[in-house]
Amino acid sequence: MSNLFGRNFRVMTFGESHGPALGVVIDGLPAGLRLPLELIQADLDRRRPGLSPYVSPRQEPDEAEILSGLAAEGRTNGAPLALLIRNRDARGRDYETRKFRPGHSDWPYFIKYGLRPQPGGGRSSGRETVARVAAGAVARIMLSPLGLRARAYAVAVGRVKAESPDPDFAETDPLRFADRDLAPRAHQEVETAMSEGDSVGAVVEVRVTGVPAGWGEPVFGKLEAALGGAFFSIGAVRAVEFGEGLAMSAQRGSEANDPLGPEGPITNRHGGIMGGLSTGLPIVARLHVRPTPSIAREQRSVTVDGQPTTISTSGRHDPCLAPRLAPVAEAMALITLADFHLEPNRHYVAINQSVEA
Amino acid sequence: MSNLFGRNFRVMTFGESHGPALGVVIDGLPAGLRLPLELIQADLDRRRPGLSPYVSPRQEPDEAEILSGLAAEGRTNGAPLALLIRNRDARGRDYETRKFRPGHSDWPYFIKYGLRPQPGGGRSSGRETVARVAAGAVARIMLSPLGLRARAYAVAVGRVKAESPDPDFAETDPLRFADRDLAPRAHQEVETAMSEGDSVGAVVEVRVTGVPAGWGEPVFGKLEAALGGAFFSIGAVRAVEFGEGLAMSAQRGSEANDPLGPEGPITNRHGGIMGGLSTGLPIVARLHVRPTPSIAREQRSVTVDGQPTTISTSGRHDPCLAPRLAPVAEAMALITLADFHLEPNRHYVAINQSVEA
Amino acid sequence: MSNLFGRNFRVMTFGESHGPALGVVIDGLPAGLRLPLELIQADLDRRRPGLSPYVSPRQEPDEAEILSGLAAEGRTNGAPLALLIRNRDARGRDYETRKFRPGHSDWPYFIKYGLRPQPGGGRSSGRETVARVAAGAVARIMLSPLGLRARAYAVAVGRVKAESPDPDFAETDPLRFADRDLAPRAHQEVETAMSEGDSVGAVVEVRVTGVPAGWGEPVFGKLEAALGGAFFSIGAVRAVEFGEGLAMSAQRGSEANDPLGPEGPITNRHGGIMGGLSTGLPIVARLHVRPTPSIAREQRSVTVDGQPTTISTSGRHDPCLAPRLAPVAEAMALITLADFHLEPNRHYVAINQSVEA
Amino acid sequence: MSNLFGRNFRVMTFGESHGPALGVVIDGLPAGLRLPLELIQADLDRRRPGLSPYVSPRQEPDEAEILSGLAAEGRTNGAPLALLIRNRDARGRDYETRKFRPGHSDWPYFIKYGLRPQPGGGRSSGRETVARVAAGAVARIMLSPLGLRARAYAVAVGRVKAESPDPDFAETDPLRFADRDLAPRAHQEVETAMSEGDSVGAVVEVRVTGVPAGWGEPVFGKLEAALGGAFFSIGAVRAVEFGEGLAMSAQRGSEANDPLGPEGPITNRHGGIMGGLSTGLPIVARLHVRPTPSIAREQRSVTVDGQPTTISTSGRHDPCLAPRLAPVAEAMALITLADFHLEPNRHYVAINQSVEA
Fold it and tell me: If you ran DSSP here, which 8-state letter would residue B195 be given?
């Protein structure tokens, strides 16, 4: 496995769905950063299960304990920051581990690691993302003084698309759907699927403002490459687009280019990234999320012994991943940007070089 | 900049559009691999400019010289393989460097590095990708004995979409468009744009067969994350999707899951990657490519001194990026997969552990 | 800071001397490894404080809790292994933090991080190494089935040098001094220093047998480079030598070369590493360790406000670092070797390459 | 192999003793650095062969060509800098490749890569280091405006030890021996060995002044760990010590500690590194170098088929490695320090954090 993310703001996560705990170690933080635990908790609460009819009923307080990295005065001391979140409602025994669940990692993990399915997916469970959100909260705190803000919200739930996305409304909606007028239809979409033992997909938009121009490291560390990789590391994400994204493939160059003014691009068709670098305009990405694979409907599968069987996934699941995936998408954006924030400055500075060997 | 890709099959590329040369160093190759130079050349030829009316007329033979890494018998010796490709038709002086080109890296590079635009974009030019294709050819040779095959081709050119993609036909088409019947319409799409001093976008599909099940390194090195990052490192790619991708966000779980049989998934809606790991079925990705930003039509811009101006990009450019981007997309897929091929085996093996300190 | 070690067997450590806990996350383990907790505990016990008159009296049980990475049957599941060790006898308030301690990190940390001295040195304390020993124990378990064994012991304590080192005796000696006959003199050396409020240096030898020939990654990952860097990451190590080491600088080539037989080198002047690669013979390194900087004798120093002062270091300290540093040196050797064990095989294999693009 | 060094100032080297060329790519350079080619050449000239009776007579001009990374005005443009040095006097056929040479990498490379000995050692030849010196010259130019200066010189040649090292004299001495009065004895030591078909060892001291306090990344990136690993990556280095190094293992704490004044340590027993961080005082390291393994005297060996034989190494070799290894040691110190120079600043800065999610 590879559970390490980042070059400068290095994030190592650990923990399994029904193990003792989840956690994260962040290496590379500057010293002196005040880290209010309540801000970290606020972000964790945004992805907590059990808070609405549209998310898993698992009861987890998701309280973070800081094990390392803070000086007496509540500021970082330059040492690695370790955060621990105990599992409180783990129920490994509720899970069927003799059958592979379609759409899950069970079968490919069996091939790769030789293990029969772990309870609730083990490390491949969405529960793993609680550690990402904790790390994202730290990144948010570090980046906040720059004026950087990140928000993610659903712009589509099943076949219901938001017409004029309102991120503030999304924070109040149990599906995190960003359109107040269409929210009832989105809720209906999910309820219908639930009543049929099924689940729905979604589109989550991530919007980051306040990123200074010039972040990104071409050619392989282009900002789209880093963010794209980060978003695709979230389970269930099947497509990612930046700016006008998909639509651009059917455009003409004269439609797609953003004209330039003295302060840079005047329009933002490019979604805040040009030539792999941030432009100072809002970074906009959309993540296309597949429907939750765990469904009550009967599906064809096989047992760990290779015998044909059927499976109807029990356990506690989200009928639509959008409301809990959105905070994870924010977190991955923030972690990625924190990493670039700590990159060395590579700006041309005409040093008066008096070189002497 | 970050011009290094990969962990095990480490690729470092260098070179600029109008500098002396481009090249790549590959570190981490096993010894004993026979590397026929003509196979590398064949891949380079597939992205060469100057070969059709639909690509840049720049005349570059793109001949690779091997500087290091081969033993006398033409096999790798375990040392880094260095490949050099001299620029033969560099014309730095043809380029306007007092104005920023819309849609290019000129302006953000100026902010990041403090440099006025480099001729032809310098390092940010598509010419940089010749080194990727050379590295991809080496990866292809290494992976070939496994039965692994990679192909990329256009499934849309502007508004013309391929109906039944035929990768073999694509290899014969000057736009690498994969539908014989609709090819004339695709050509027309590009010619119309050219005649109007404009350019068109495209969708390139990458299809890799023969990848064994179990490649990928969750959670941050999921196969989609690695490939997604690799594809987004190619300039002009604005969206990436895997398998049924985008379409899945509007599906139900019962439609999206692939049922399982004794040999794994029976259908391939997931595009060959499930839980971040390969499933043994074909890996299918689609790259949505923006229209070439260099167009003859007049656009609003500013000079390096911040004065408003207009610009009509001269130089030698491709009216549609698909035919030359496809080999680059293949190369990035192959390099990424070569990297996973060299990952340590993590399969459960019940060792008879007699541990003694 | 950089608290991450290794490429394949990735070890991230965290924790401070008087914080809540220390710990380690190990990423990259194969699945299926049986990890008996008692073996990990046995290694932790070997560096525990409080067990003899020659080590710090701090009372720490150093019990490890596994938070992640084990499947139900007590074997690794391929997920990151997280180990936690709570501090039980932390006494932050006993420590003077208004004065810089000579020979410690206090002053350079103040310059780098802007922090006044942390209790007991915070992250720079030797206590940090408990996490390394936990990781080393895991590495030992993984490498043990290969027949690989690592031992470290003191071959000099102050001015007393072992004449015929006996690693087995060292395990029974409170100073881990490897010469039974001279042990009383070594003990006397330390007691005299203690009675004078002073400390003594030592030389620790690390001996690893059972390493297969061919481990190492030239040119920058030569085995001496990797092990040398690992040993120098242990505080107080001021010199490292391999094989006949130092002595070789005054030799002739004809004395220094090991003649070769059909199975490789016949003698082991090179200390098990030649051309940066293991030779199959025992790897032998010696670490020259400075005397403990914390001493009761009065020394010149300054306060955090830059005022001249004197300091007599209180707190709980080891008069000689050898007995507790030896297990850490073993651990670093094991972690480093575990990393090479997981490197891809680069042996020439004449593949029947039928390359087809 | 692992031919990549560094995290921020990333150096990838390539090339073999009797291949077409050697070279280096440096990734991560800031833009705007003026890189006078003559300064690079001056460093290359310092390790060139053929310039005195005490070094290999191979005739290599070692002229560097810059392939990438410079803007028109001779300053770096932020892109990877690629430097190429063609082999002009390669004579692969002069080399015996049917026998393993004792003390060389031939035998372990055969085990690891399955290759019979490469002419002149191939990649394991000292010739590889020309690329390191080129990279070191670039690092020197980058660090020079800080006032940083690095020098390496021999403080012992065989059994002759310098009494009062004078680095300036060393630059004029064909052995780079640092003691004018004892130089004739050092020359005699080498000549006697040469006349007997033998070689001698040496001790090379590296001294770097002008390093600001606070460089280094504890715990695994301590400055000794990074520099120690860098020095041990140079073939023939068998021991490395910092500051008073070895001597400290026999000292008392009260002798070994450097007292502190308002500007930091007053004395420099610690050799410029304390707690893994630079202190602002000169960094001093000593490298103990084995005698050249290639000697004319007959030695026992085996053929590639495992048959006992004798070997008397022909080819062109250095009777003492000191004069040519010293510039390489400087280069490795400079490259390592360049890497730390580009690390993110981690100093406590009391930001007025108004955090808002």
Answer: H
